[in-house]
Specification:
Blueprint lengths: L3 E5 L4 E7 L6 E8 L2 E7 L1 H20 L27 E13 L4 E8 L14 E8 H16 L18 E2 L3 E2 L1
Parallel strand pairs: 1-7, 4-5
Antiparallel strand pairs: 2-3, 3-4, 5-6, 6-7, 8-9
Helix pairs in contact: 1-2
Length: about 180
Amino acid sequence: MPTIVHGFDWPDRVAVGTVGRPGSRSFYLQVRSGSRVVSVALEKEQSAALAEKIGEILDQLMTTAGNPVSVPSGTPVELVDNEPLDQPVEPEFRAGAMTLGWDPTTSQVVIEAFPIDTADDDDVPDEPAEMLVVRIPVGTARAFAERTLEVVGAGRAMCPFCGTPMDPDGHVCPVLGER
């Protein structure tokens, strides 16, 4: 069966957002072009790693001698996106593997997300039933990375003593005991 590719070459919007309260949030990568919206479920750690790696790629491009692309060091104000995800959020799949790259022919960051591999016991990965491919310019990529890190960091407060997340109902700190 051929792979269904949810492809976006110049999306109107690409964002990581959440549904739910801190401590029980679900993370989603959502892409929109016109009225077409595709959402993919992510883990919090995947979201953070994606944003960090995009930042690294952009920072490397800024210091590459002879690079013809003007890469912003911060988010251009016109690209700031603080809006919630488009509703309803209906994920196409839960992301397993993700790849990140740079296309010098279009000066775009390329994000690929694949569903969690459900290979049989034969240890041969199945061909993915579907995948998401998003191509975004450098300004949009910088804005995406910064927003994603803000979303990831907006969860539960961290205990200053043990560094674990604190629930609104209380926290048992292994360093200090119950607080």
